[in-house]
Amino acid sequence: MNYSIAIDGPAGAGKSTVARLVAEKLNYIYVDTGAMYRAIAVYFSQNSIDPDDVQAAGEAVAGIDITISYRDGIQQVILNGENITALLRTEETGRMASKISRHAPVRTKLVDLQRSLAARNNVVMDGRDIGTTVLPDAFVKIYLTASVTARAKRRFDELAAKGQACDFEEIKADIEQRDYQDMHREISPLSQAQDAVFVDTSDMNISQATEAVMEIVNQKRSGRA
Fold first, then answer.
1. If 0-12 CB within 10 Å is exposed, 13-18 middle and 19+ buried, where does residue 207 land?
2. Residue 201: Cβ within 10 Å count
């Protein structure tokens, strides 16, 4: 029997980092589903495809191939034979990914891939609808979140550390807009699964957030929850 851990939550809550660290501790495979959506977003941007055109989106995904590999333990995302990992974390890609994730053809293609990975491996998977849609029978479900202000500060600090010019209020407004889009999209909106454990990381660092999730997983594995 394979075990799956689903970690859902809004942008900037620390899902990807926590999921990766939990996977390392458990020796599970980490599946960054957000990176898959971002890969399609990169394709849309590179090919000037209108993210609001549902028909164009359906036609585009038919010609997209996304694979995942690991180099020195770090996930690499391959789009149509090209490693695009370095392009995934830009603000433009994030905004595009939020828009295209509303389209049924995009979600159907990626959900099938994600379920296939979980059927073959022990996985930790993070995203917006893992516990509600992709892996509704996941062994452990976590809803990881933080206040908008906390998430905006993290993103601001991240960009500033890279020497990139950034404005805190613009980042905060962008996060609020992405939250609204994710929570109000017609297909698989972001929401907390009824059986998911709520974890607020507003006042936690990554180490503390990881330990909080590991405690929940260990309790479940030991039959205490």
1. exposed
2. 25
Cβ atoms of 137 and 193 within 8 Å: the answer is no
Q: What are 158-205's pLDDT values in tens digits? A: 999 989 888 999 999 999 998 998 898 887 889 999 999 999 999 999
Task: Answer whether 8's CB lies under 8 Å from 193's CB.
Answer: yes
Q: Where does 4-33+90-221 sit in CATH, by number?
A: 3.40.50.300
Element (H or E) spanning 7, and its range? Answer: strand 4-8
Amino acid at 20: R
What is the percent of the chain with per-residue pLDDT over 90, rounded to a whole number? 59
Contacts of 139 (CB under 8 A, 6+ apart): 3, 4, 5, 220
Distance CA 80, CA 67 (A): 8
User: If pLDDT is split at 50, 70 and 90, which confidence band does 122 have?
Assistant: very high
Phi and psi at 186, nearest 5°, equal -70, -35
Number of H helices, E strands in the chain: 8, 8
- 140 φ/ψ angles, rounded to the nearest 5 degrees: -135, 135
C-alpha torsion sign, points 173, 174, 176, 181: positive
Q: How far is it, in rounded angstroms, from Cα 64 to Cα 5? A: 27
Rounded to two decimals, the pTM is 0.79
